[in-house]
Amino acid sequence: MENDAPLRWWRRLHIVPPDHLGTGRRALLLGLLAWLPIAGWALAEGRAFGGDGEPLIVHYGIHARCLVVIPLLVFAELPLHFICQTTARRFVTSGVVTEMVRADFDRVLIAVIGARDASLPWVFAFGAAIAWTIADPPATHGDELAWSMSRDGTLGFGGAWFAYVSRPILIALLVGWLWRLWLVTYWMWRIGRLSLTLTPTHPDRSGGIAFTCNLPAGFVLVTLALSAMFASSWAHQILHHGATLASYELPALAYALGWSLLLLMPLFAVAPALWVTRWNTLPRYAALAESQARVVDGCWIGKQQIAADDPLLEPKGLGVMADVGAVYETVAHMRWLPVGKETLVAIALPMAIPFALLALASMPLAEILSLLFSALK
Known about the structure:
The protein is mostly helical.
């Protein structure tokens, strides 16, 4: 994240120090900027906890987007910053990038850093936020902004602030994170095209680059923010408008599948290199295993005399046969997609937490206790 366009702008405003990302102060500032004017106006107008219609307090999506989602999207820069730096180092320290390829690897890094530092993508993000605000005016969100509507149907200051300040901030941040996800994917795609020294017999079953499976974890807070945004909006409809959890199953499933596939894009970008490595080396290890098996068969079944120094056979046992079999199995089961348990946990856990809380909030206590007791039987 160092020196990307938004960070440079924050530093020019002297809000972020030059040697630090300043995620804490940025998250606090944007969160309060998005929420405080809304809450202050609602309190002054008597619409925070009461009023003619629904009070602001029960519109959980408003509070969640301002106080949870926006700050999380700022804090999310920290894990991505750390994981990308670690991944870049591991490519070199693991030996996957040799000295012969190091110059090309550095050129890829320079190209990706240049794209990261560009201002145009962020100008597009803000432009997309403004365009979305114009194309989707507050009038189409009557229920969400009911707490801000007057009797004659006009929108109050609090609703206008949310529609024209808070929501554009959120949209710009979301578009910016899509840009960052594409940037990481582009980085992996460029690396995957280099002449990497992938080891098909590596115990990680990913040619020695299983460490790339941690890349989706760099977006763990983004996943949590997105899930919180959806779950909080649905919570209002379920708790105050009679909607059911079942009515949101398809949207939740579509979100889970779509976002999971997007998070796996950086890993799909290096998949061709792994596939080619396995495709090219598996026949060679199969031929080695076949040659070794013929020697063993000739010695133990055919009773042939085999030279004691035959490199494919141990004079007193079948250990080499077992070793070759294990090596062949490692190559045969080499993963073409570097996805591990930690990858699935990094995607599924932050995605599931807000929806689990939504399910608990929408179920009566007696039903929850009944399910718990039935699980213990």
